[in-house]
Amino acid sequence: MKPTFxxxxxxxxxxxxxxxxxxxxxxxxxxxxxxxxxxxxxxHYGYVFIIPGIDPDAIDCGENEDLFLAVxxxxxxxxxxxxxxxxxxxxxxxxxxxxxxxxxIYFNKVTNGxxxxxxxxxxxxxxxxxxxxxxxxxxxxxxxxxxxxx
Length: 150
Description:
Layout: E1 9-11, H1 16-25, E2 28-29, E3 41-44, E4 47-49, E5 59-60, H2 65-72, E6 83-86, E7 95-97, H3 103-111, E8 121-123, H4 126-135, E9 142-143, E10 147-148
Parallel strand pairs: 1-5, 2-4
Antiparallel strand pairs: 1-3, 3-4, 6-7, 6-8, 9-10
């Protein structure tokens, strides 16, 4: 079954490593020899292109790879590689990256109850992702006590 990604986005960066990360999320890279050298990537509902034009719904991630991957990972059919944030601490939200298909199962494995209940968390919105990744670019943010941003 094809993943159902929900948010188009683009980045002003194009590396083999970044394209591989998108493929690992389930994206199909639709580039040819010439477009592999283009300095931009556009993730659009399961496909990766160079920017053909600006989609008014696409999120501009600048050169922020963490933000780009977080927004590109948003989908309805799985929690894999999506960020969740808590509903409790609005002034200092805690974020957890889910590395399995279902957040509830992953949360219980990695937190050992130190963060409360998985019910205290929700899938991060685009605005929450932008706020988190623009405020803490390329820095590790400790989550609860054991889970960290990679």
